[in-house]
Fold this protein.
Amino acid sequence: MNPIEILKEFGVPVTFCLGLAWFIYKQNKYIQDDLTKDLHHKFHLLEKIINEDLRNIIIALINQQKKMQIELRGIKSKYEALVEIINKLILRDNEKWKN
């Protein structure tokens, strides 16, 4: 309908109320669309940063675990060598006491 026809049929107050309602609707729609777009953009940026940080943390943890496994192998081999040496010394001392 034409705004002038609405004015003639319903009067000034109703026409202004309809115009104001339309203006508020359009303004709210613009604000919501703009805020939604901005929120999505910021969320994707934050998600990207978090994903990169988590990926780096996981890589660092895996590297640290590998280093610890290597150290553990070294400690285990040293322990086994010490046990072997102590066993040989004990056997040698036992043989000396028997003679």
